[in-house]
Write a structure and sequence with these properties.
Order of helices and strands: HHHHHHEEHHHHH
Largest sheet: 2 strands, antiparallel
Number of strands: 2
Distance between the termini: 22 Å
Helix content: 55-70%
Strand content: under 5%
Oligomer: single chain
Length: about 200
């Protein structure tokens, strides 16, 4: 309901800018995990994206880096653990945060401490991390709105659909979008349910 209200009262360009700003804030976490996975080329791209978007993109509210050829990517410590060979474990449905597993849950904890905002700002004012977490949750639900509404309306077993969708999405992120098996032993199959990055301009 909160996200529904947010979508109703917030113009599309504001929602786009919010998403871009939040993604730019995650750059230090993405960079740390790029290095931990040995992805030096992607780490360089992350540095360029952060510098360009933080300056020409006005603190990241506009994704200027994508327009000049530096496409975004996502890395987190859950993916790093997968690259290091850790199994995902059983599927979990967490309150507020949604689908997860023990590996990704542990990754969330590590990413919290990797994020400079949490160890630089939080000791003096923990309201900023709390507000950021809440806004990030609303933004994520907004971007997945159509996908999740479609599952709720048409799926015979929504829970199984969420589980399958989450696992396919995470395997794709771990492989960096490659269909071939990479640095993990997960042996994922080609997804039958594609979860594309939503386009807020449509």
């Amino acid at each position: 309901p909160v996200t529904g209200f947010y979508r109703a009262v917030t113009p599309t360009f504001v929602r786009e800018a919010t998403y871009s700003f939040l993604k730019n804030l995650r750059s230090p976490v993405i960079l740390a995990n790029d290095f931990l996975q040995g992805e030096l080329g992607r780490a360089g791209g992350t540095v360029v994206r952060f510098f360009v978007n933080s300056t020409a993109g006005v603190l990241g509210f506009w994704d200027v880096a994508s327009k000049i050829g530096f496409e975004p990517h996502n890395e987190d410590f859950g993916q790093t653990l997968a690259v290091w060979g850790f199994e995902e474990g059983p599927f979990l449905m967490l309150p507020v945060f949604g689908p997860s597993n023990p590996r990704d849950l542990a990754g969330r904890v590590v990413d919290y401490f990797l994020d400079p905002i949490n160890w630089w700002v939080a000791p003096d004012d923990n309201r900023i991390p709390i507000i950021r977490t809440a806004v990030s949750a609303i933004d994520l639900r907004d971007r997945l709105w159509e996908n999740l509404e479609e599952i709720d309306k048409n799926s015979i077993d929504p829970y199984a659909s969420y589980r399958s969708m989450y696992r396919q999405r995470r395997n794709d992120e771990i492989r960096n979008g490659s269909n071939s098996q990479s640095k993990t032993d997960l042996e994922p199959t080609k997804p039958t349910y594609e979860l594309a990055e939503p386009n807020l301009t449509e």
